[in-house]
Write a structure and sequence with these properties.
- There is one protein chain.
- By secondary structure, the chain is of the alpha+beta class.
- The protein has ten helices and 28 strands.
- The protein has a nine-stranded antiparallel sheet. Strands 23-22-21-20-25-26-27-28-24 form a nine-stranded antiparallel sheet. It has an eight-stranded antiparallel sheet with strand order 15-14-13-12-16-17-18-19.
- A hairpin with a 2-residue loop joins β3 and β4.
Length: 440
């Protein structure tokens, strides 16, 4: 009995071993992909630089056609329109590299079953050599998502992922430039903002930063000016408006009260945006760069109701996050002349405590105007100088309970909060010689 049982066990082990071998072999032969799913199949591969024209014929919409125009692209159908560079680049990438999820039918007997006899969209790609490639986009697949697709020269029907179809099946409205202003920020040289008060004019200085030149020369908060430009650039038109809606916007704009006019001047010329406001706080705009009238959000409309004070640089010092190499402080009770030597701060050939020096620098960096008075500066109470990229000198005087500061070489005055001046004086008083135990 024992030999017979041993034979049976041996046979079972052999069968199991064969099953394991067969299973492992089949796993190795499976296509790559999640949980053994078939790998995507490339059905169209083109060089983006070799594409000259893309035409998308829609069964239920007007044909969309884009063509190369020098180094860029233009929309030529259903009507000539400026194109959105990012949207065009996304379309080019999508049509140049099309991958299908799987093959549905190798040799379909009836394309109508897949919606490919009369496709919902036909994408024709014309190459620089005059040759064309065509994609037919059919119905949505009932199971598994995606839709049916067929490429010229291949009888097979594939399924195309929903996101891939969305990236390809575009209308002109998806590809058009929707900016209300089309300026190039880097090439602007002048900005003018005309509101109820005196017009504010900005110009780039030698450091390529914005400065206020009107109503009088003043330092500008570069971040605030760039933020204005960013908001102008982000203004978008609504491309789906009907002719009746466009006519209504024009009517609303013309009946509203003028709020502001922004004029942008650069290498490509001048663009202008006029903003108006209704009694119920609705904002409308008209641009010289594109046709039509546009409704702005309340937040966007408020961005243009500003004066020069909103764009002024409130910081007394411009050194910002640059590390100073020299710091000078002088008042009735303390005089400091600090200079950087390697990693140490020195004063009168003595190493100073870096913590105290850094606290003083931080107080100087934080000095900001609480207001911009026209007068009030008297005899200096505190004199300051900071050398980083350049040397900046500031004098602070006291008039009653107010502190008034002035930068050297500038007529503008800055009113300072009393606490900030007191913190500055305390920080200066706390600068001490480096403890001897810390010396090396």
């Amino acid at each position: 009995m024992r030999p017979k049982g041993l034979l049976i066990a041996t046979a079972l082990l052999a069968v199991l071993g064969g099953l394991v071998w067969w299973s492992n072999k089949n796993k190795k032969d499976e296509p790559a992909g999640a949980e053994g799913a078939a790998a995507p199949t490339k059905i169209l591969t083109l060089a983006e630089a070799g594409i000259n024209k893309i035409e998308i014929r829609h069964r239920e919409a007007e044909t969309t056609r884009i063509e190369r125009d020098g180094s860029g692209w233009k929309i030529t159908s259903p009507q000539p329109l400026p194109s959105d560079r990012d949207a065009i680049n996304s379309l080019l990438s999508a049509v140049a590299n099309v991958s299908a999820d799987k093959v549905v039918e190798e040799k379909p007997a009836d394309l109508a079953v897949f919606g490919l006899k009369q496709p919902s969209s036909v994408v024709t790609i014309t190459l620089k050599d005059g040759k064309t490639r065509t994609l037919k986009l059919g119905d949505d697949a009932p199971v598994g998502g995606g839709s049916y697709v067929q490429v010229d020269g291949d009888p097979r029907v594939f399924t195309l992922a929903s996101f891939a179809r969305t990236n390809i099946d575009k209308l002109a409205v998806d590809l058009r430039d929707k900016r209300i202003l089309t300026f190039d920020n880097d090439k602007l040289t002048r900005i003018e903002l005309a509101t109820k008060g005196p017009a504010v004019e900005f110009s780039r200085n030698a450091q390529n930063e914005w400065a206020i030149v009107k109503p009088s020369p003043m330092r500008a908060d570069n971040w605030q000016v760039e933020e204005l430009l960013r908001k102008l650039k982000d203004l978008k038109l609504d491309p789906l408006l009907t002719s009746d809606q466009q006519a209504d916007l024009e009517k609303q704009f013309k009946s509203a009260a003028p709020l502001a006019t922004v004029t942008l001047t650069g290498a490509a010329g001048t663009q202008q945006l006029e903003v108006r406001k209704t009694k119920d706080n609705k904002y409308y705009a008209h641009s010289s760069a594109v046709e039509g009238y546009h409704l702005l959000t309340e937040d966007n409309g408020k961005d243009f109701d500003k004066t020069a004070a909103d764009f002024r640089n409130k910081k007394l010092f411009d050194f910002g996050f640059n590390d100073p190499s020299k710091v000078e402080y002088k008042d009735a009770s303390r005089q400091l002349a600090l200079s950087k030597s390697g990693e140490k701060w020195m004063a009168n050939l003595k190493a100073m405590d870096p913590v105290g020096v850094q606290s003083l620098i931080d107080r100087l960096r934080d000095l900001s105007a609480a207001g911009f008075p026209d007068s009030g500066f008297t005899t200096p109470l505190i004199e300051l100088a900071v050398t980083a990229r350049t040397t900046e000198r500031v004098s602070i005087s006291k008039a009653g309970d107010k502190y008034i500061a002035r930068r050297e070489g500038e007529p503008a005055l800055y009113q300072l909060d009393a606490k900030s001046v007191e913190d500055l004086q305390k920080a200066a008083a706390d600068v001490k010689e480096e403890p001897k135990a810390a010396k090396k």
